[in-house]
Structures are given as C-alpha cells and as structure tokens.
Write a structure and sequence with these properties.
alpha/beta; Rossmann fold; six-stranded parallel sheet; 5 helices; about 40% helix; about 20% strand; globular
C-alpha cells in the first residue's frame, strides 16, 4: 500500500513514517507539508491512501481533500488531527475523506484505519464522540 503523508510538522511525519514502514505491506511514497504540495504529490505518486492533517499552512486539509478527490475520485483520504468534533469530522467526510483519527490515538489506530480506508471502509476514531462512520 502506497501512502502519502501530509503533515506540516516533521517530527510527526517521522513518527507516522516509522509506524507505517514497520508494516511489510506499506510504504510511504511521498510526504508533503502544505496542501498545495499535497495536491501535486497526490497526482504525481497516485498513493492508495493519503494521510491528511486538517490544519495546514495555506490550503487546509479539508480543501486539499476536496481538490484531490475532484481530480482523482478513487483516491482514499484518512484525516489525522489533534482537533476533533462532529462538525470537523463531517467536514472531512463531506470533502470526500473516508476516515478520521486523532493524533494522540495514532499509535493504536493509524494502521487499522489505513487498512480500512484502503478498502473503502469508513473509519472514525472511537475517541471522537457523536460521530457515525
């Protein structure tokens, strides 16, 4: 499974990369720090799943997801953010995302969420109240 990591903090990207690359069937195909860069890299690398931070410099993760899905309708997006709430989760789902994981749950949930989203199954972190996949 090819993954594009979109996160503006290098330390967080490095942690996610380490988690992902421990899996024998997953590889980080590219990384991006901004929404604009993510859009370019998503089109260039055609990842199976894009892990998308919500708060990015410039174009935010919700708008970036909307644009990626508009250009590549089959692309899967998993949001990963410290911020949560039913409105934010609904915004990423409405933009075309398939999942939402809180960063503080990434160690436990990132890999299962990636596997679910890659198959087209919605995945919402159990820690996020009042949301339904």
């Amino acid at each position: 499974m090819k993954i594009l990591l979109v996160e503006d903090h290098k330390a967080t990207r490095d942690e996610m990369r380490a988690l992902i690359e421990c899996q024998p069937d997953m590889i980080v195909a590219a990384e991006a720090e901004t929404g604009e860069d993510a859009l370019d890299k998503a089109l260039d690398t055609c990842p199976d799943v894009v892990v998308m931070d919500i708060l990015l410099p410039g174009m935010n993760g919700i708008e970036t997801t909307r644009k990626i899905i508009a250009k590549q309708p089959g692309m899967k997006v998993l949001a990963l953010s410290n911020h949560f709430g039913a409105t934010l989760v609904q915004a990423i789902l409405s933009a075309g995302g398939l999942g939402y994981v809180r960063k503080n749950r990434a160690l436990e949930e990132l890999i299962p969420a990636l596997r679910a989203v890659a198959t087209g199954t919605k995945y919402i972190s159990e820690e996020i109240p009042n949301t339904k996949p």
